TrEMBL record:
SUPFAM superfamilies: Cytochrome P450
Annotated keywords: Heme, Iron, Metal-binding, Monooxygenase, Oxidoreductase
Pfam families, sorted: p450
Protein name: Cytochrome P450
Family: Belongs to the cytochrome P450 family.
Highest rank taxon of the organism: Bacteria
């Protein structure tokens, strides 16, 4: 048994945990999850989940899980050992289990090495003018809607569109497909929730069929008519790696293309909408940042800390171990709570205060081998967009608070954010 920290114990108050989870899924809990994080942390750094396994609430304990090599992701091998196989055999779940976030070594290592760093400094520098141009065009749309109607939905007009246009442009996907991709992405994600219902899994299954058909056709068309884009490069690489096994090459290319596309959409959209919401709900905050644009990156990091786009991520104990003084048996699931960790006062003082100059800590992009591939790209998109919003819309303000999709707990989605000038 290996010790991985001794912070605080756990609780067995099942009813209290169930009550908190119900509140988290409510409209009030989605709009302001901070009191729920605080109550969960008060139960311990490692809190027993009602269905088995544990929630991890403290920053240090979460960091240990995300960065430690003794913690695995729930891959096919783990799923096959579970008693509730029906849950894991859902089509959408199976589809996502083949992607990078659900692969362990050595398969994960092989694919990450082959992929390299798709968003290294040189790539981002090359992408920056295009991202700036895309942001400018979308803000033109926002300006037109504000002029015509007096208010506009920032999420639908800008926040969801910028990551879609950015990754679509990068992969060479025609803009007429963007609305369809966003639609099946919103529906497919239900399979990645903690406890999806049968009806939600059915919605995800249909979205998965549409997703599979779209990306399979896209790859086939690109193989027939290569271009000067990233997808063409992946096809050349994996075809050369598996010259006698086209099916395997196609599967890897599909998994990479599908995952990188959909993974870059909802999470970045939440970051962009949150950043605009936090800055414009207090005009003095936006005014200060407009005078001090050198702190735009700090505003982005504080947004990521204060309200992370992903609330939960799961890991599996590779061996019997101890976490925060709590014995954890091999194969046990632990759920890392990003928001709770970021609001741990032992790591960030006065965590309930949104402070652009905090220079605080967060785990929003994960850690270790599974650190988010698109972190640098999301930051680039946010940086370019916020700079332009501050310059072009000095009087932008929200009409109402954001509206959240309350069917989500793991992956947050801001369904609407109405703004005016």
């Amino acid at each position: 048994m290996t010790a991985v920290g001794d912070i605080r114990g756990t609780t067995t108050d099942r009813r209290a945990v169930i009550s908190l989870l119900r509140r988290l899924r409510s409209g009030e809990g989605q709009a302001n999850p901070l009191p729920i994080w605080e109550e969960l942390r008060s139960l311990g750094d490692v809190v027993r989940a009602p269905w088995g396994g544990y929630f991890v609430t403290g920053f240090d304990a979460c960091s240990q899980v995300l960065r430690g090599r003794t913690w695995l992701v729930p891959d096919f091998a783990w799923q096959e050992r579970q008693p509730d196989m029906e849950r894991w055999q859902a089509p959408a779940t199976q589809e996502m289990t083949r992607t990078l976030p659900r692969l362990n070594a050595p398969t994960h290592t092989c694919q990450r090495r082959a992929l390299g760093n798709p968003f290294d400094r040189a790539t981002l520098q090359a992408m920056r003018p295009r991202v700036a141009a895309l942001a400018s065009g979308l803000l033109d749309d926002l300006e037109d809607r504000l002029r015509a109607d007096g208010e506009a939905d920032f999420v639908h007009t800008v926040a969801e569109q910028l990551p879609m246009h950015t990754v679509g442009d990068w992969l060479g996907i025609a803009p007429e497909h963007f609305a369809h991709i966003l639609d099946f992405t919103h529906r497919q994600v239900y399979a990645q929730e903690l406890l999806p219902t049968k009806s939600e899994l059915a919605v995800s299954a249909q979205a998965t069929l549409e997703m599979r058909a779209f990306f399979t056709e896209l790859i086939g068309q690109r193989r027939a008519r290569p271009g000067n884009d990233v997808l063409t490069g992946w096809i050349h690489h994996w075809d050369a790696r598996y010259p006698d096994d086209r099916a395997t090459a196609d599967q890897v290319i599909y998994d990479l293309t599908m995952f990188i596309t959909i993974a870059s959409l909802e999470t970045t959209a939440v970051l962009l909408a949150n950043a605009v919401w936090f800055l414009t709900q207090e005009p003095s905050r936006a005014a200060w940042l407009r005078r001090h644009p050198e702190h735009i990156d700090d505003a982005i990091e504080e947004t990521l800390r204060y309200d992370p786009p992903v609330h939960v991520n799961s890991r599996i104990a590779a061996d019997d171990t101890v976490l925060a003084g709590v014995p954890i048996a091999k194969d046990t699931t632990v759920h890392v709570l990003y928001g709770s960790a970021a609001h741990d006062p032992r790591r960030n003082e006065q965590p309930h205060v949104f402070d652009i100059r905090r220079n605080g800590s967060h785990l929003t992009f994960g850690g270790g081998a599974h650190y988010c591939l698109g972190a640098a790209l999301a930051r680039l998109e946010a940086r370019e967009l916020l700079g332009q919003v501050l310059e072009r819309f000095p009087t932008l303000r929200p009409v109402t608070p954001p509206e959240y999709d309350t069917s989500r707990v793991v992956f947050r989605r801001i369904a609407s954010l109405k703004v005016t000038t």
